[in-house]
């Protein structure tokens, strides 16, 4: 009742704000938005620096017309002291739109990317400005709140080439396990080694944890084409198949490293003993998810963001069953003592500043505000009185307000990794518990890719990344000898173009990343 009264008060304030904003809030038009501060508000912001930003529209409703009449944009301008000319480009072909604009000489001051190189050509063509000096002078919050792993991801030859959003969950995939299955078959400890994991899988197979009297349990399931849902197996031996790793002075794709054979042998045993989903080579995403939702699967791999999602998926699929899906640390492979887990994706998005920017200092100042405590609360919870209420330092967030007031696009400006106050305002109970557990594990493990941020290679070389699928399937499903089969494949793969790919990876690393 107390929270209801808070929101009745909030709605009153929100209504008052919307009345003042309604004249400029029509999202049905297709015209390009005008910079904030034009029209009737120009005098108010005449001395405020303006930055032009290109961003995707996230396929959401976005403000048009005079942006200062949008309460969310107006809040950003007033609090940051920087006027914003935001240009929303179609989400579906965002990179193509960037390329067209750059080719026509239509440059922003700053644009959003998903890393340093995404095919838009700005960095490769020398259009992006190094930011070291500007960050040193104008970015105290950037320096304080961006961890080194995120800076490393956007640094080339010592030059910081973008402002990154650090990942809240850097290790990109985790093990998911039915804890209620563990309880049902008497597994009292989370497996810490590959041997212990195998023993748990065997108990899932034999112990009827779904209690239907049939031997139909799938101990571990994954998706077609050796997709990332199986990366957790290789990750027990420090391998991410497609990512760069050092081997005898070369940078090679993970599957070339000898440790790949450890994972193959493990999966061969799993398949032979009926512990691996027999349809793992052909499971589509929807079929794979349905197997999990229907209670057939005891373990799988997925992104840390699904820490609560897949608990709910299984619970919704099995009403009346006391479901408990947990994330667990990646077990360590037998005979291996290095890092474990899945590849680390250190950043979610990056903003790149163009050399042609009229006021690059203003760009850095704006993003520095987003990393302040005030900016973090805003980017996650929105504008007080519209998206959330506050009382005695406690925040009361209303998720439905985002669609109601068309503010979902604000996620474009969420730049920090984690803010405890906003996290606790957005999530509660078991959802918070599950998500926090996944975040904690993801921040304690993971594999560094030495080629993270490397420009895309040509199509012929790109295709080489996937040629391991066929011999891997022969080893796992047909029982082909691991060492003999894999060594012969790698030798032939190198001769058929693989060495050229390795040379390109190694040369890029030595030129751009080697310290």
UniProtKB/TrEMBL annotation:
Record's signal peptide: 1-21
Composition bias type Polar residues, residue spans: 24-35
Keywords of this entry: Signal
Keyword Glycosyltransferase part of the UniProt annotation: no
Disordered: annotated span: 24-45
InterPro entries linked to this entry: Bact_solute-bd_prot1 (IPR050490), SBP (IPR006059)
Protein name: Extracellular solute-binding protein
Originating species: Paenibacillus thermoaerophilus
High-level lineage: Bacteria, Bacillati, Bacillota, Bacilli, Bacillales
């Amino acid at each position: 009742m107390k929270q209801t009264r808070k929101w009745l008060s909030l709605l009153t304030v929100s209504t008052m704000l919307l009345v003042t904003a309604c004249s400029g809030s029509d999202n049905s038009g297709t015209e390009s938005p005008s910079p904030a501060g034009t029209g009737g508000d120009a005098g108010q912001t005449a001395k405020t620096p303006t930055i032009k930003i290109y961003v995707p529209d996230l396929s959401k409703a976005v403000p048009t017309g005079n942006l200062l009449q949008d309460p969310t944009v107006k809040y950003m301008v007033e609090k940051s002291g920087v006027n914003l000319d935001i240009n929303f480009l179609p989400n579906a072909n965002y990179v193509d739109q960037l390329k067209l604009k750059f080719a026509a000489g239509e440059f922003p001051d700053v644009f959003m990317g998903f890393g340093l190189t995404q095919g838009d050509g700005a960095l490769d063509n020398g259009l992006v400005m190094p930011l070291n000096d500007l960050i040193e002078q104008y970015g105290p919050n950037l320096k304080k709140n961006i961890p080194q792993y995120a800076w490393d991801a956007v640094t080339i030859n010592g030059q910081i080439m973008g402002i990154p959003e650090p990942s809240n969950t850097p290790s990109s995939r985790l093990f998911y396990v039915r804890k209620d299955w563990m309880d049902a078959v008497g597994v009292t400890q989370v497996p810490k080694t590959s041997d212990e994991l195998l023993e748990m899988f065997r108990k899932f197979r034999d112990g009827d944890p779904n209690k239907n009297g049939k031997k139909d349990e799938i101990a571990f399931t994954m998706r077609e084409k050796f997709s990332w849902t199986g990366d957790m197996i290789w990750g027990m031996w420090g391998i991410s198949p497609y990512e760069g790793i050092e081997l005898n002075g070369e940078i090679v794709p993970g599957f070339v490293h000898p440790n790949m054979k450890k994972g193959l042998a493990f999966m061969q045993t799993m398949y032979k003993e009926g512990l691996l989903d027999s349809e793992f080579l052909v499971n589509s995403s929807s079929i794979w998810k349905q197997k999990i939702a229907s209670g057939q699967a005891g373990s799988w791999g997925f992104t840390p963001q699904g820490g609560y999602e897949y608990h709910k998926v299984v619970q919704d699929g099995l009403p009346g069953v006391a479901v408990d899906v947990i994330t667990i640390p990646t077990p360590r492979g037998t005979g291996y003592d290095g890092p474990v887990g899945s590849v680390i994706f250190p950043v979610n998005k990056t903003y790149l500043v163009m050399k042609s920017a009229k006021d690059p200092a203003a760009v850095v100042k704006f993003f520095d505000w987003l990393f302040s405590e005030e900016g973090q609360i805003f980017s996650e919870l929105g504008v007080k009185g519209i998206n959330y209420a506050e009382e005695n330092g406690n925040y009361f967030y209303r998720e439905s307000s985002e669609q109601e007031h068309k503010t979902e696009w604000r996620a474009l400006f969420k730049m920090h990794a984690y803010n405890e106050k906003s996290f606790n305002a957005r999530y509660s109970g078991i959802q918070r518990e599950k998500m926090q557990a996944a975040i904690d594990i993801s921040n304690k493990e993971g594999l560094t890719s030495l080629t993270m941020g490397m420009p895309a290679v040509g199509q012929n070389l790109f295709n080489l990344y996937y040629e391991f699928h066929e011999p891997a399937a022969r080893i796992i499903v047909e029982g082909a000898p691991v060492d003999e089969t894999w060594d012969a494949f790698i030798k032939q793969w190198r001769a058929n173009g693989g060495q050229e790919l390795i040379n390109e990876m190694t040369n890029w690393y030595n030129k751009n990343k080697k310290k």
